[in-house]
Write a structure and sequence with these properties.
With 313 residues, the chain is an alpha/beta fold. The chain has one domain (82-311). The chain contains 11 helices and 9 strands.
Length: 313
């Protein structure tokens, strides 16, 4: 079962090979996404690969937002071995909790003081590098866990807890969670703005080192992906702010509380991950182990966390 974007179809393809060698019967993959076009593309890629490997294959598409998903739609059969993969999706559930918290305890709107407002206006007048340099001179550095100041990080996340409990009830053999490893769920605008400066500076630096500025693919990623994420992090509040990226330690706390136990990546798995990154032909990528999970970094800056889990009895 796959929650995620079109990129996840590429990540699911290698799963078919060991399944074909070790198991019998029809292999069934369920994809969950809010856009039918994405699911159609995923089905096409997976079907092509299954035909090459001569593997009986069935794709079950579910058009739904994650927060509206009913686990009964997944049609998991009794005794069926289930694997779950969530690709950059779980953080969106935190928006529902924020909206619920606001309704229960409405807070007065905060205004940005003169100093902060002038810094926001500087975004239109200075380059990203100049702003980062000024922050370093003034003593600012990205906090190790700025999301800890968010009320949500200190209280029960109702929607997230309910969803994870539903997944636990399906007793998956393995569950892989991929999330952005950043502090973008802070309670204040300036907190999120400054953290976004550092994390997206690393992402843009990564693109600069691996793709030409005239690349159509790069332009699409910058405008349609990173640009929309940055706008959502900075300009939106309440249920509209979906890009609530948090650090790995927050996800470890949530999954542990939901009854899941961490499954450390094997030495062979780490070796495969490093070989995959080396295949991009760029020295800037790094793989780092942390708390039994994996961080994909650009230089020393973590970009994404990948962790594996199974139900703890």
């Amino acid at each position: 079962m796959v929650f995620g974007s079109t990129s996840k179809s590429f990540l699911a393809i290698p799963i078919l090979t060991p399944l074909g060698n070790k198991t019998e019967g029809i292999k069934r993959i369920t994809g969950v996404h809010q856009q039918r076009e994405v699911l159609d593309q995923m089905a096409h890629r997976l079907t092509e690969e299954a035909e090459k490997l001569d593997i009986p294959f069935q794709f079950n598409p579910i058009v739904s937002k994650l927060e509206n998903l009913d686990v009964e739609q997944l049609r998991v059969k009794t005794g069926e071995a289930l694997a779950i993969s969530s690709d950059l999706q779980l953080h969106s559930l935190l928006a529902s909790d924020d909206e619920l918290l606001r309704k229960k305890s409405p807070l007065p709107s905060k205004t940005i003081n003169g100093t902060h407002l002038s810094r926001v206006l500087q975004m239109n007048q200075s380059t990203l590098g100049e702003l980062l340099e000024k922050d370093l001179v003034n003593g600012y550095s990205p906090s190790p866990d700025s999301a800890s100041s968010s009320p949500l990080s200190l209280t029960t996340s109702v929607k997230m807890e309910s969803f994870l409990n539903s997944l636990w009830g399906l007793t998956p053999k393995i569950m892989v969670i991929t999330e952005q490893d950043s502090n973008h769920n802070g309670s204040s605008l300036m907190e999120r703005l400054l953290e976004a400066l550092y994390s997206y500076a690393a992402l843009f630096d990564c693109l600069e080192s691996t793709m030409t500025r005239t690349s159509v693919e790069r332009l699409k990623v910058e405008k349609m992906l990173f640009g929309e994420e940055i706008k959502n992090i900075i300009a939106c509040e309440g249920a509209e702010r979906k890009e609530r990226h948090e650090k790995l330690d927050k996800w470890i706390q949530r999954l542990d509380s939901a009854g899941f136990g961490n499954v450390p990546l094997s030495y062979y798995g780490m070796l495969q991950a490093r070989r995959l990154l080396q295949g991009y032909g760029c020295d800037g990528y790094r793989i780092k182990e942390e708390s039994g999970s994996v961080l994909i970094c650009w230089q020393d800056r973590p970009l994404f966390s990948i962790s594996a889990w199974r139900c703890r009895k």
